Amino acid sequence: MAWTPNWDAAGGILSIGSTVTGMIGSMAAADTARYQAKSKGLALQHQEDMAKVNAGMLEMEAQQIFRAYDRQIQIKGIKAGLEKGTARASFSARGIQMGVGSTANAFASAAVMREIDKITMNSNRIRAANQMRTRGVQSDIRADMLGVSASNMFATASAVSPFLNMTNTLMAGAADFAKNEGYGFFEG
User: Domain for residue 178, yes or no?
Assistant: First the structure.
């Protein structure tokens, strides 16, 4: 008796093979998606850490601005004191009476100018330091937002299930097998 091929059985075998390779592919795709989500989460976590470092550096820079302006204010005050002393000595050496008339006005004007300079420098100091602090706060906020995004990516990665993807492919293969009445494997 000559052998006759059973094409239904061959189709069934190919269908089963297709379902198995589909399940393997689904598992690999799910693993890839999980690893990509974890990778994105780690990248976001790194950016969060860097934003926190930047925020700390900006605060230190704000403090340095305060110190630099303090030194400038001190130097300006010392120079003003030296100029006042030099002017007094010069007026006294020339025999000009101190505290009366135009000399009083000259010293009063110089004192007002010193105070205006001091107030201006203090205002600039506060403005510059607050700009740095504002940038630091913005960096802190960015770090917090990146932390939330990283947590979301890790949650997404943990929610990816290779078995759920495989089950979907298995159910589609089983439905095809059933639709074709078992491809002739179960006659009777």
Answer: yes
What pLDDT digit, counting tens, does each position of 104-115 carry?
Answer: 888 888 889 989
Which stretch of DSSP H or E encloses residue 118? Answer: helix 101-159
* Between 34 and 102, the higher pLDDT residue: 34
Burial 87-102 (b: 16+ CB within 10 A, else e): eeeeeeeeeeeeeeee
Q: Rounded to an integer, what distance in angstroms lies between the CA atom of residue 111 and that of residue 109?
A: 5
Answer for the pair 121, 69: CB distance below 8 angstroms, yes or no: yes
Query: Residues 134-142: what's their mean pLDDT?
Result: 95
CATH number of the domain to which 108 belongs: 1.10.287
Buried b (16+ CB within 10 A) or exposed e, 32-42: ebbeebbebbe
pTM over 0.70: no
In a domain, 110, yes or no: yes
